[in-house]
Amino acid sequence: MRGDGDGWATTPDGVRHWGRHGAAGLLLRAPLEDGTPAVLLQHRAAWSHQGGTWALPGGARDSHETTIHAAVREAQEETGIDAGAVRVRTERVTASVDGGWTYTTVIADAEKTLALVPNGESTELRWVPEADVEHMPLHPGFATSWPGLQTTEVRVLLDTANVLGSRPTGWWRDRAGATSALLDRIAQVLPRTIELPDGGFGWLPRIEAVLEGEARAVDHVDARVPVHAAGGSGDDEVARLAADVGALTAVVTADRGLRSRLPGSVLALPPSTVLSWLD
Asked: How many helices (H) and strands (E) does the chain have?
């Protein structure tokens, strides 16, 4: 069924853009077996606008729709993905022109690469390793926006005791139980795309939890939340791990003393960053 958004919007200078009320596309990531992200791309049918190029599934937004609804609906129609498995993280206007027309990229994740069923708008659908996307013959609009949408892998260290202590939940009555429950909840929201302080995006396949004291007794086995049991101070262990040279690193803590010990290249994130994912 055609919606009221199907059709061309014409700018004051006569340039046409598909979608009378604007358009939206879904940038969906999922982890490959090695934990690195893949992006769902559509090889556009030859008869379509900019046919033969690769781009995000998406299309025109109807007047009654949000951009998120439009992007997920269009992606489901064009790729057959299970919309219930899509976890929307954020959205970003990646193109706008005089006259008010906009294209919005809705950024989302799935726990795994979803099964795909193309419709007539696609020559092929493919989960493309994110590192390979820039080497594809991309739709010009997507090629322009892609540098600002791609992710950097982020290593996140969790000052677990500090995060637990940031909310008065009575966690101190059962430190091991509260810690185990927190780690289980965190595992359920990974992997994920995150927004970075500089406006870019990070890929977070796991969060490393540092445990101290009674919490070290926690029996937690999940590759998404590996555990470091501190022999002494948890702060000392976090600082030691953060000093390792490698991927972009972030430490989740509100402890000012610990923050002051971190290398200048390490991002310091408040506990509310991770806790908001659980809410």
From this structure: 7, 16
Tell me the pTM: 0.87
How far apart CA 272 and CA 277 sit, in angstroms, is 9
Reduced to 3 DSSP states, what percent helix, strand and coil does the chain have, rounded to the nearest 5?
Answer: 30, 30, 40
| Alpha carbons within 13 A on the beta-carbon side of 277 | 23
User: Phi/psi of residue 206, each to 5°?
Assistant: -155, 165
Distance CA 244, CA 86 (A): 34
CA gap 52, 189 in Å, rounded: 35
Q: What are the beta bridge partners of residue 95?
A: 103
Residue 213 CB partners (closer than 8 Å, separation 6+) = 161, 175, 234
- Give Cβ neighbours of residue 63 (< 8 Å, ≥ 6 apart): 4, 5, 20, 21
The residue among 248, 155, 132 whose CA lies nearest residue 208 is: 155
Residue type, 78: E
Question: How does pLDDT run along the chain (279 residues), one tens digit per residue?
Answer: 567 877 777 777 767 777 677 899 999 999 999 999 999 999 976 556 655 799 999 988 888 999 999 999 999 999 999 999 999 999 999 988 877 788 999 999 999 999 999 887 778 899 999 999 999 999 999 999 999 999 999 999 999 999 999 988 888 888 889 999 999 999 999 999 999 988 999 999 999 999 998 888 888 778 999 999 998 999 999 999 999 867 799 999 999 999 999 999 999 999 999 999 998
